[in-house]
Amino acid sequence: MPELPEVETIKNELLPYVVGHRVTGITLIWEGIVRQPSVEEFRSRLIGQCIIGLTRRGKYLIFSLTSGEALIIHLKMTGSLLIKPTPAEPDKFTRAIIHLDGETSLHFRDPRKLGVMWLIKDANSVVGKLGPEPLEADFTPQLLAQLLNKRTAPVKAVLCDQNFIAGVGNMYADESLFAARIHPLRSGKSLSPDEVERLHCAIQQVLWSAISNKGASVENYFRPDGQLGTAHFQFQVAHYLSGKFCPVCGTPLQRIPIRNRGSYFCPRCQPLED
Ligand SMILES: [Zn+2]
Fold it and tell me: Element (H or E) spanning 16, and its range?
């Protein structure tokens, strides 16, 4: 699934194509992609609006409109947003097309049909409960320590909880825990101040590195121009993409399910001890 670095890359690369442009039409090939309001209202309220800003919050993209409303998009597992010239034939996985002035359109491609769009007055009704942004200045080691303080759940599950930290998912949680040498099953509150500091540093380093590599092209992630990201080439453990052995000590990596997602780690570099 696209996580913070992928959504940040999409936001950065879409900006010049969408901001300052007017929505001239909508083609909904699969209407189920609109969560709110009704399909008719979605179409009538969006067409004619100018996009005046585009920001990211967690894994959500927020398009600000002249009416004061926001178009919010979540790509979920397999969604991507592709910029195409108008007219361009949609491929078989294109679920919606937002036509813009200036002869471009935004194709929402989503093989698994899990992606969602909202058109709403108050963006906070969708993104208001998200946890802090891990790359913002207010995300300090002290804040992370405070957030982990009472959490008895495995730290891996805590990191993937969007209401805890916004934007980190399965891949970057595994990479961050490996970089911090922390076992994914350790409870949040068991981490020492030193480990919290290492984890904080690892999260930021892993995310910035992935952004500079334009995201990881796994599970159908494409950049708006259709190109792939290269962040997965830097992965140490996530999805075994670097191989099945720890790149640091050579021990076979392990995969365990945590909250129904595979967690990858090195049992030697990330020992389970409280
Ligand atoms: Zn190792």
Answer: helix 4-18
User: Which of the following is catalytic: 76, 113, 181, 261?
Assistant: 261
Q: 23 CA distance to ligand 1 centroid (A)?
A: 51
pLDDT tens by residue, 137-157? 999 999 999 999 989 999 999
Residue-wise pLDDT for 159-179, tens only, equals: 999 999 999 999 999 999 999
The rounded Å distance from CA 254 to ligand 1 centre is 10
Residue 2 bears catalytic tag: yes
Q: Which two structure tokens, joined as six digits, stand for 199? A: 């984890």
Distance (Å, rounded) from C-alpha 139 to C-alpha 157?
19
Neighbours of 40 (CB within 10 A): 9
Give yes or no for a contact between 196 and 145, defined as CB atoms under 8 angstroms apart: yes
- CA dist., res. 176 & res. 178, Å (int): 5
H or E, element range at 107: strand 104-109
Nearest in space to 12 (alpha carbons), one of 229, 214, 180: 214
Tokens standing for residue 259: 């909250």
pTM: 0.96
Give the per-residue pLDDT at 106.
98
134 is catalytic: no
